[in-house]
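Bump. Still looking for Mg/Co/Ni transporter MgtE structure tokens.
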Amino acid sequence: MAGTNRVFAGQLAGLPVYGPDGERIGRVRDIVASLRADRQPPRVLGVVVELATRRRIFVPMLRVTSIEPTALTLATGSVNLRHFHQRPNEVLVVGQLFDARVTIESRDAAAVVEDVGMEPTRTRDWVLGRVAVRERLGRFGRRGPVRVLKWEDVRGPGVLELAAEPQGAQQLVAVFDNMRAADVAAAIRDLPTKRRYEVADALDDERLADVIEELPEDDQKDILAHLDDERAADILETMDPDDAADLLAELSELDKNRLLELMEPEESAPVRRLLEYSSNTAGGLMTPEPVVLTPDATIAEALARVRNPDLTPALASMVFVTRPPSATPTGRYLGCVHVQRLLREPPSELVAGALDADLAKLPPTASLGEVTRYFAAYNLVCGPVVDETEHLLGAVTVDDVLDHLLPEGWRENGLWEATTDA
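Sorry for the wait, here they are.
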């Protein structure tokens, strides 16, 4: 292997992975090492690579020809695209060793693992030869300097007792910091249950809510059940109402009602309304928080609203105009304005002058098939849901439709499972 004598896992995580012809395959998300019963450095088995489809696969170290500061390159050959599953005798370096509590042998001093370095041996194997640790000083565990030690210079619990030892997650959360919520969700799904809970505990409410929205239903329920009721209610308040309603609908009536009671009334009200509809209807698919304006709002105000970074691209593609009140269910629905039209109009003009009043509306009882045909017929990514008395109830976006059209379990199974040539 060219160019590297030692590389730390924190530097390797996130690097792009290229095939021998220069085509990009994915990104490194973790390193897999084998557990050992003795104090010798564990052998590195390979890397976990995340493909563009978010599927995580295992690539053996023998397939890695080069590790550079900016990329990792693979040798010619086939790559197994089966989803990575951790075996009982394996450890995820980033996912499980970061933040582990250890003792510095020479000083009998408590420390926390900040990073782990891997290095090649004479036999061309790679081992976890170095550990970057931060010593904890004094009774209150003040943060000391970072020291890079040999693997054998630190002792337990190490990798052999991780299942029982409480462990922080600050370093791992720092690795997740620049990742999209969907990528973080894929990462924590590959972690052991104990480690997954520790990450959930370390994430702030907003970040955890974003991640839970990207998890499969069983994993959503598992993490929600791990949280105490007060925090679970806080997370549900932070989630998009339609996602919170979908999750609550999967719980028992007792659990659902208990959490709804713990939520703030203004946060639970839109969720309760969504729960009145079947999940495969426009009413069950919609978000009750689209961009709504009154007819006397200006084009400039409308553009300012759609610039909100918290809006998804689909939801930002259209603003809806109604009589007061503008909170759903609104006053009488008047029409919508597409974002392209907003960009073409003078900022000082009123949105009422750019109104599309002829676009068909979705009733809340419209089936998933009807909603799908609606988007196909009108080439839209967002559409209004209006009741029989002309009140705007919310908006359906194409991403919500796709979630229900894709096969069950698509988040955990990916889009295909095969092999490809690298």
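Residues 292-405 form a domain with the CBS-domain fold (CATH 3.10.580.10).

Edit: fixed formatting.
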